[in-house]
Specification:
Length: 175
């Protein structure tokens, strides 16, 4: 029943979100957002592990700040982190945060089965599930919703995957 409730919430969020632009004027600290997401994921899935690594922490904390809609971005990044944990045999996701000039880059990686190259173009489509997911539960909404939220913020997301080694989603949060 909980899975159905989460699916309906995601569908409602997906249908409400316009793909052109979101008013994103709330200052957010990326490190605090990641810690909040980690806590949310662990509350829902106590066996999931998330490792956060900050590359070359900036001398100025202001470089950790970007602007966005906290609720929507929490939903987007949480969906990707949950997927990384879900598809990793050890239920672990690695989050690597880099700050270069004023661009914040977040890489979310797993050590799962990987995504077949021929299906990569479709993973952000609503209800699409790669044939290789086996019995892993899901509805094919999470990545589509995450993509739409990030696009509405004018942020970018790309994915790289190697069969048998894992997948990495890279999100650029630039102001």
């Amino acid at each position: 029943l909980n899975d159905l409730i989460f699916m309906i919430q995601d569908l409602l969020n997906f249908s409400r979100l316009q793909t052109n632009h979101v008013v994103a004027n709330t200052p957010l600290r990326v490190d605090e957002l990641l810690f909040d997401i980690t806590n949310l994921v662990r509350q829902q899935y106590p066996d999931y592990r998330i490792h956060i690594h900050l590359n070359n922490p900036p001398q100025n904390d202001q470089l950790l700040i970007f602007y966005g809609n906290k609720q929507l971005l929490t939903t987007a990044i949480k969906n990707i982190v949950e997927n990384a944990c879900k598809y990793s045999p050890d239920h672990t996701a690695s989050l690597e945060l880099s700050i270069d000039n004023e661009v914040i880059t977040l890489a979310i990686a797993d050590k799962g089965p990987g995504i077949p190259p021929e299906t990569l173009p479709f993973i952000f489509e609503p209800f699409y599930r790669s044939p290789g997911v086996g019995r892993v539960k899901g509805f094919g909404i999470g990545l589509a919703l995450a993509h739409r939220i990030l696009k509405a913020h004018k942020f970018t997301i790309k994915v790289e995957s190697t069969l048998g080694q894992g997948t990495c989603f890279t999100i650029r949060l630039s102001n």
